[in-house]
Amino acid sequence: MSTPDLNMLVTLDVLLAEGSVVRAARRLRLSPSAMSRALARLRETTGDPLLVRAGRGLVPTPRALELRERVSQLVQGAEAVLRPAEQLDLKQLARTFTLRTSEGFVENFGPDLIARVAAQAPGVRLCFVQKPDKDSTPLRDGSVHLETGVVEKTTAPELRVQALFRDRYVGVVRMGHALSQGEITPSRYAAGRHINVSRLGLDRGPIDDALRPLGLERKIVTIVGGFSTALGLARASDLIASVPERHTGNLRDGMHSFPLPVSTPEFTVSLLWHPRLDADPAHRWLRECVRDACAAMR
Question: Hey, is 74 helix, strand or coil?
């Protein structure tokens, strides 16, 4: 069975509405002869005359009367689908967006982001889920709408990426800790008891790679999966946490932070989403909210 020409629906809609080949041709900016040929194709396709002569005019057949309302609705629906999205009404927007972030992001940026969203779109709900790995499947299948993180070689190439901020690692200890006073040398830093943050449970990282050429090695006492957990332990003990500076700004309140005594590369934390949502006005608005919340936390 051949695929029907859906453009004929527009022609049929105009013909049935006007009841005249001449007026329908004028409305569609066609010649009367071209419109007559279109009517002939419609008659052949539907198996019905559709419009028949009555005196000097044309009248619809019962089949045409039956189709008129249905065809009009179909054409209006198609036009609505193809029409550019209407202006977003944030006050009436009611959606739930799922954001996947590393531990610490919500604790640090979440309060401001939630307040921004609530002030502009009270019907929008944010669902934050943990980020156990770098797998891009949740973005691809739509179960996650936005993600924050560092772009790596394993990141799906089709994802859209927007840089949020540059970050670097800093050392953090409780107030009164020995490292809260005096110069922090590489040997003094390495000699302490450390917390390593690794989702995969690794006991080494970029900081250890930077210490190795100096003949130094950290003593890793415990390994945790997130930055807020590391800071919670450091706040209540003599352990040293090494965490991203911007990523953990609020979480380090009341603690002593210091630049690492070794050089480690800065990195960019980005916003990631699937291209299917790129033009969605509500999603675009949410991306702006996330960017503004991150920019405000300096």
Answer: helix
